[in-house]
Amino acid sequence: MADLICQYGASDIRLADIGSDHAYLPCHLALNHKIQAAVAGEVVKGPYQSAQAEVQSQGLDSIIQVRLGDGLAVIQADDAINVISICGMGGSLIRSILDEGQDKLSQGPLLVLQPNIGEATLRTWLSQHDYQIVHETIVEDSQRLYEIIVAQHQPGASELSPRQAYLGPMLSQKRGPLYKQKWAREEANLKAIQAQIQAAPQPDQAKLAEIAEKLGWIADSLSQCQEEE
After folding, report:
1. Which Gene3D superfamilies match (predicted)?
2. ∠ CA 208-92-73, rounded to 5°
């Protein structure tokens, strides 16, 4: 996350880290002189206090402000935030945070997002709100795979197709070992769900059609991975 913020952010990064988890990310960036200022936002008092303690212990009070509030509500106009990071939440929740805080996106800050599930709904929202995905990657942590999405504000950005939103417009082009691993796992999960639905007395045909479409996308993409080996 930190490397991507530095790579795609402006030269004078002013970061809002939402759901900041002890403010580790802004503290790391500040200690390495990579940001000018940061807001660490937490919606629950316990994590808010933990983030405050971390910032104070690192002597970063003059650079990082820890605020208690819901989503992007912690951002104030005079913060001049130009990068927003949101990590470790479901894609639907990140989408809701962005949707409810659209007034805080008026200046087009860079978005660096790490959904742990529900990536497709998040990508769809981005493409419908003038955000162009400029980088995607998959990382592995404790045997779990996570996607990181970097999006820049770009009026008139083209809307993603359902397949692009599901597989990732950039990930599905560059693919790679973790991409293959992720979608092989998802293919197995979907086939198991498909079998359960088919075994029901009255199978949900709409759900089966949705699964069949996704399995088709995955099979096609994985076959391209095999051709490249």
Report:
1. 1.10.287.1890, Vaccinia Virus protein VP39
2. 170
**19: three-class secondary structure by DSSP:** coil
Is the pTM above the cut of 0.90?
yes
Burial pattern 104-138, b for ≥16 Cβ within 10 A else e, equals bbeeebbbbbbbbeebbbbbbbbbeeebbbeebbb
